């Protein structure tokens, strides 16, 4: 009798659990069907329930092409859609309609794809949101003060000199030059020195574990973005790539932790007031001394974030600039004239005043970032329902902002694929929409390192131009631009350099 009633009790519990799950599933299904009805009012590829468009999406350089072709196809739409499984993604391809993202104090949360960066960057400035983000942003903003940036100008000049020496040797030895690799190593040295006060000597020694781990982990995160089979942590960390990810993670975190601890032990408050060269890290350590709630882990998150955001982005932008300059002789001629008039024959380092005078180089850099924004797309999660050009976009869903296409809007950039630095002359840009040009994003979540990056690009390019003439070896199509985390060439950018006498 007791056995019977226990059985009955267990069966009832089981039925209740099943009924509960069923109710939840039906509720979810009704929500999903409603979502499909609302979202599919937007244009997009035909979708398959539950799978969405995942089976139609291309990878590597084909993906960027696909996004470009679809954006052109839906060019009259304010926004279009891609389904990643059951998750709709609203694709923003026109600056005119990006207001809801950039002007809003609310839609500042990043999309779930950024979670793949969490094991490495934690919830540092790039990946956090809400109160944590605003506190951090307030803390870090002063570290980009122009007086502090002046200090980093010395680092940039020194590393640019090492790079031009290496390039001269390659020219003398008639070796092939992949300018993307050279600039990547140089930018890594600049950011290591500026962020951590460490010289990893990436330009001369590519075998450093840290240098290799930075490159490999960026690659692994990209693979994860594209492959739904790698999305679950549970499965991912059992795969070969997941294990490799963990291996790199350990190298990176061990390195930054060691540097932070050593730097903290050595840091004397008078260092910060003296002429001794400081790093971002020192400023964060000082903030920690004034505010006990900041932990070493908090500092590591930010240092790792700077390392990630602060080198590939600049290197990619400067490399695309070399490619474009090397295939537009009339632009190169003007650049050479400008650099010669500012620097003459002197081999001295560039000063801030020199940089201000390199006005045409400024236009070239801007136009390069229009055609090749280093971060070709970035994501947000809507924190409220919004209206975009008469379409309802839903709270909790993802926005993908495609800077690469926003920069190709014919309304603001006639003949958009043409490289024309004069588009950025003041008289030609005065009527442009505020969000038609967003290489550094816009609004509250814009790039905090923007001025650092612009300064670095100018120093690196000015140094190449003052000593060399650049000739591009391939066309853009042959280089196959890939829109991963960073917009980079599929297989480097080969160029020919000729020493200027
Ligand atoms: C040409 C070079 C660069 C470009 C094109 C660029 C572009 C961007 C973009 C588009 C974002 C927004 C990303 C998003 O919303 O997901 C961003 C954010 C950020 N960038 Fe940059 N970046 C560059 C260089 C740098 C450098 C040199 C640093 C550091 C020294 C840096 C640090 C950051 C940080 C910390 C954020 C997050 C800011 C926040 O959310 O408050 N970036 N960058």
TrEMBL record:
- Name of this chain's protein: Cytochrome P450
For the ligand (heme), the binding residues are: 447
UniProt KW Metal-binding keyword:
yes
Listed Gene3D superfamilies: Cytochrome P450 (1.10.630.10)
> Cofactors per UniProt?
heme
Keyword list (alphabetical) reads:
Endoplasmic reticulum, Heme, Iron, Membrane, Metal-binding, Monooxygenase, Oxidoreductase
**Which Gene Ontology terms cover its molecular function?**
heme binding; iron ion binding; monooxygenase activity; oxidoreductase activity, acting on paired donors, with incorporation or reduction of molecular oxygen
The similarity comment for this entry is:
Belongs to the cytochrome P450 family.
Where does this chain mainly localize? endoplasmic reticulum
> Which Pfam family is one of this chain's hits?
p450
Q: What is the lineage of its organism?
A: Eukaryota, Metazoa, Spiralia, Gnathifera, Rotifera
